[in-house]
Specification:
The chain is an all-beta fold. It has two domains: about 1-65, Golgi alpha-mannosidase II (Immunoglobulin-like); about 80-310, Beta-galactosidase, Chain A, domain 5. The chain is about 0% helix and about 45% strand. It is built from no helices and 25 strands. It has strands at about 1-5, 15-20, 30, 35-40, 40, 50-55, 60-65, 80, 85, 90-95, 100-105, 125-130, 135, 140-150, 150-160, 165-175, 180-190, 215-220, 225-230, 235, 250-255, 255-260, 265-270, 275-280, 305-310. The strands form six sheets. Strands 13-12-18-25-24-21 form a six-stranded antiparallel beta sheet, with no helix packed on it. Strands 1-7-3-4 form a four-stranded antiparallel beta sheet, with no helix packed on it.
């Protein structure tokens, strides 16, 4: 059986391709268009994962699937006791919180996650109203191994979460990859109806805020002398340094990525569908229309921490 994979982007790509159980029914062994065996793995869902290598920009690759045994990658990805490792990246998931508390590059000393502030990477946060001191976190995590390698290893992390019926986070690492994937699925509860929208009700300052809420995922990084840069349309921006006077600093839009790096190493966070971030702290707490300039944030101090602001009804 032959299958084609088309690269619709303008750059060459090497990544895992997932074929459904029906599309890969002929077997587990994969060869590329040159007849060379390609690493593959039958997943717990019944789908087949294969590694597409250096598919050219706007190009395609052909794969042949047969009933032979799968080809094993030369360097495996492993998973044990919440640690995912492939010889390039090592990531540790905290057994209680499900947060990423360690992220290391092979041959480079130091943890790229800053846990000194009590937060960790991909941590769920929920805010009702605007009082950040009442920020809420997820419940204890139930962690299970979905895929154990050798090509793909992944953990499923399920937690109770304020504002949600359920929260499921997945962390996946591929053999030979220098990136770690996180996938968060939120089953959101509807915000409670505010009986006094924009007014607060007699003598009740909080009533105007009680139905206002927001959801964030934290990304505190730790790169020695690292600087933050953000992708925006047609440019790369440094928060505060490259912003025009009067620019909004409580929240910022991001195109594809945020990079925290020094001259030798760093971390690039890539966002597929979350276009807003809060840099340095949770500061998008101004509810409704704000005409008073004094309530807006005026400066962003140097930082390596940001929050993906995935949902809110502040307006």
């Amino acid at each position: 059986m032959f299958r084609w994979w088309h690269n619709s982007t303008s750059w060459s790509r090497t990544e895992v391709v997932i074929l459904s159980k029906e599309m890969s029914a002929s077997g587990d062994h994969v060869k590329d268009g040159r007849g060379l065996s390609v690493p593959s793995q039958r997943l717990s869902t019944g789908a087949l994962a294969l590694l597409a290598h250096e598919v050219p920009a706007f190009g395609s690759a052909r794969f042949h699937i047969s009933a032979a045994k799968p080809h094993i990658p030369p360097k495996h990805v492993s998973i044990k006791d919440g640690v995912l490792e492939n010889g390039i990246i090592c990531a540790r998931i905290d057994s209680n919180s499900g947060n990423i508390v360690e992220l290391e590059l092979h041959g480079k000393p130091g943890n790229l996650v800053n846990v000194s502030g009590g937060e960790a990477v991909n941590e769920y946060l929920f805010l009702e109203g605007k009082n950040v001191s009442k920020l809420q976190r997820r419940g204890p995590a139930q962690i299970s191994v979905e895929e154990a390698g050798p090509l793909v290893a992944s953990l499923r992390i399920e937690s109770s979460a304020p504002g949600c019926y359920s929260l499921v986070r997945r962390v996946r690492l591929t053999a030979g990859a220098d990136w770690l994937e996180t996938m968060n699925v939120v089953n959101k509860k509807r915000a409670p109806l505010n009986p006094y929208p924009g007014t607060g009700g007699p003598g009740d300052e909080f009533a105007q805020h009680e139905a206002k809420e927001s959801m964030q995922f934290a990304f505190p990084f730790a790169v020695s002398d690292g600087k933050m840069r953000m992708d925006i349309p047609l440019a790369v921006m440094r928060p505060e340094t490259d912003q025009l006077p009067g620019s909004c600093k409580n929240w910022l839009p991001v195109g594809r990525w945020i990079d925290v790096a020094n001259a030798d190493q760093g971390v690039t966070w890539v966002s597929l569908d979350a276009p807003l971030v809060e840099v340095g702290g949770i500061t998008a707490t101004m509810l409704g229309s704000q005409k008073d300039p004094t309530v807006w944030r005026h400066h962003i101090e140097p930082t390596q921490k940001f929050y993906s602001w995935v949902m809110n009804n502040h307006w």
